[in-house]
C-alpha cells in the first residue's frame, strides 16, 4: 500500500486530494485547473483518486502523476483513508503541500490548503434525518479543517463569509478568495435558433430548487402552453429527482419538461447557445459554474437573488426570490415577452464573463501553494525574482 519513500524534490511536491470530486463543480475544477498548474515548473503534482473516479477525468495530463486508491468506497472507509492513510502516504512521499479542493481534507496532512466551496446552509432546507446528519458532519469537518489548515481558498466572497462560522476576521489572513474560471469553448453561437426553451443546468438535489421552477412553469402554462424546460444534470439525489418528476406530472407538464441527464461539454455549449433563457433557481450556491458557462455563451439569465449569485452575475441577470413561485414566474414571463431585454441581458452576460478565467484561477492558486511551501523553496523564489547585477 505504501510507496517507496521519495527523495526530496527540487520542486514543490503537491499532493492533490481528489477523492471528494465525484460530480459537478468538484470534477470541473480539477479537470480544468490541474493541466494549468502542471505548466508551473515549480510544482510537482500528485493527484490521488479512488479507482472509481478515474473515468470522470478523461485523459489526464502526462505531467501529473496519478495515484489510484483501491478500497471499498463508503462514508466511513473514505474517512479512514483520507484521515489516516493519506497523511501516511504524504509522509512517505516527502510531500511539501497538500491541496484538498473541498471543505475538508486530511487533518494531519502536511501544509494543507482546503477549499471553501460546499455551502452548509443546505442543512436548514433538508428534512431527511440521514441527509441532515451528513450536513452536520460536513460542518464539523469544515470547522476542524479550517482551524488546522495552513491556508484556505474560498470560491467567492459569499463562501468566505458563510463558511468561516461568523469568524471571518479571525481567518482573514488565512482565507483567499479565488473565483473559478471558464474555458474559451464556452462562446456565443454565430447564428440563432428557432427553438424556444428554458434551460437549467445542475446536478439534481434539494438545494437546486427545481420543484419551485416547475411550480413557476405551471403558473405560466396558460400564457405559454408549449414552452419547454430542459434540465441538464446528473441525479445525485434520486429521492429528490422523483419528487421533481412527481411535481411535473401533477402540474400537467410531462410534455413541457425534458430531463436530459448528464451532457458532454460540447452538448452543454450548444444548449447554452440556443436557449431562450437560462434559469438558475438554486437556493444556495457558493459559486455556480453553470452561471459563468451560460454568460460566456451569451445566454440571457434569470437567477435566484441569494448566496453568491448576485456576486458572480453582477448586472448580467434578472433576479427573483427562489422561494417565491409567483415572483419567479413573473420574472420569467416578462423576459419571454421581451426580446429586446433578452438581447440586452445577453450582451451583459458576455461582458461579465470576461472576469472569469481558469488560467487566472490557476495562477492565483499556485501563488497560494508557494506561499506556504518549505522555506527552501521560498528562498529559491526570491533568488529567481532578484534583479541580476
Task: Using brief descriptors, characterize the structure shown.
Rossmann fold, alpha/beta, 389 residues, globular, single chain
Descriptive overview:
A 7-stranded parallel sheet has the order 3-2-1-4-5-6-7, with helices on both faces. Strands 10-9-8-11-12-13 form a 6-stranded parallel sheet, with helices on both faces. The chain is globular. The protein has 13 helices and 13 strands. Helix content is 41%, strand content 16%. The protein folds into 2 domains: 12-180 and 357-378, Rossmann fold (3-Layer(aba) Sandwich); 197-353, Rossmann fold, CATH 3.40.50.2000. Helix 5 links the parallel strand 8 and strand 9 (228-232). The protein is an alpha/beta fold. Helix 8 (289-296) crosses helix 11.
Fold topology:
Elements: E1 12-17, H1 24-38, E2 43-50, E3 65-69, H2 75-92, E4 97-100, E5 112-116, H3 129-148, E6 151-154, H4 157-162, E7 175-177, E8 197-201, H5 210-220, E9 228-232, H6 238-250, E10 257-261, H7 265-274, E11 277-280, H8 289-296, E12 301-304, H9 309-313, E13 318-320, H10 325-336, H11 339-353, H12 358-371, H13 375-385
Parallel strand pairs: 1-2, 1-4, 2-3, 4-5, 5-6, 6-7, 8-9, 8-11, 9-10, 11-12, 12-13
The major pleated sheet works out as: 7 strands, parallel
What's the CATH superfamily of the largest domain, by name?
A: Glycogen Phosphorylase B
| Rough outline | globular
CATH class of the largest domain: Alpha Beta
Strand residue percentage: 15-25%
In which order are the strands of the major sheet placed? 3-2-1-4-5-6-7
Instruction: Tell me the domain tally.
Output: 2
Poorly predicted sequence stretches spanning 5 or more consecutive residues: none
Task: Give the strand tally.
Answer: 13
Chain-averaged pLDDT:
90
Q: From the 3D coordinates, which CATH architecture of the largest domain would you assign?
A: 3-Layer(aba) Sandwich
What share of the residues lie within helices?
40-55%
**Class based on secondary structure composition and strand pairing:** alpha/beta
Q: How far is it from the N-terminal to the C-terminal residue, by CA? A: 50 Å
Estimated radius of gyration: 22 Å
Q: Would you give the CATH topology of the largest domain? A: Rossmann fold
Q: Spell the H/E element sequence.
A: EHEEHEEHEHEEHEHEHEHEHEHHHH
Give the helix tally: 13
